[in-house]
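Notes taken during the Thursday session

The instructor put the following on the board and asked us to keep it in front of us for the whole hour. The protein is Curli assembly protein CsgG. We were told not to look anything up and to reason only from what is written here. First, the residues (241 in total):
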Amino acid sequence: MDTGLSPDNPYATYTGPRAKVVVASFPCKAEKCGPGVDSSQVGAAVLGKLFGIEVSTSKGDIGAGIADMLTTALINSNHFIVYERSVLDQLQKESQIGNQAQQLQGAEILITGTITAFEPDAGGTRGGGGGLIGGLLGAVTGGQKKAYVAVDFRAVDVRTGAVVAAFRVEGEASDTDFGGLLGALVPGAALGGALSQYQKTPMGKALAVMVGKAVEELIRRIPPSYFKYGPDGQPVPQPAK
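Then, after some discussion, the predicted structure tokens were revealed:
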């Protein structure tokens, strides 16, 4: 089976334990989530307040597209077992009967977030790139079309409602090259649905940069105790104490 991995993927050889997660669609609070889109309605299909956090089940909008990109990147990192978002429907049913602490059909971490900035033509340099992704961007020269996106992420334990990781990630780009790590973790083909209009544009790459950074942060910030499963979903034997 084609996994989408490439030699440029720093996680291609990772064979360690994985965490079980589900990725929700992201509500968008930015003004420019898409041509003709009323920002007050974007991500409106929200499961109320689960654990005090908005969880969107929207399909086909910018937030759902970013969730799809993140899902692809998480799978390609070899650090996560990712469950389909349809399991969120079960969480909604459980919340209606006051049983939010039940396990989410196998997933132990809910990854959600809010799009706080979405600028297909930012017109200026914003933020800095760091980690594995940032070095790929290179210098931003004047006169180039730039794009910028920012998302506030949260990782929530679905059994307890505890926020186990929270961080902000930005992505900026002025070109459309998806080579190297970007191509490995977030192939250009992942830009579907509402994001397809940004295929081969700076915003397409800015989204990939942001998602790539998010994967790095999730691997680094989610506590090691959640990484305890093999690729088949079975617990990895723990060393004897």
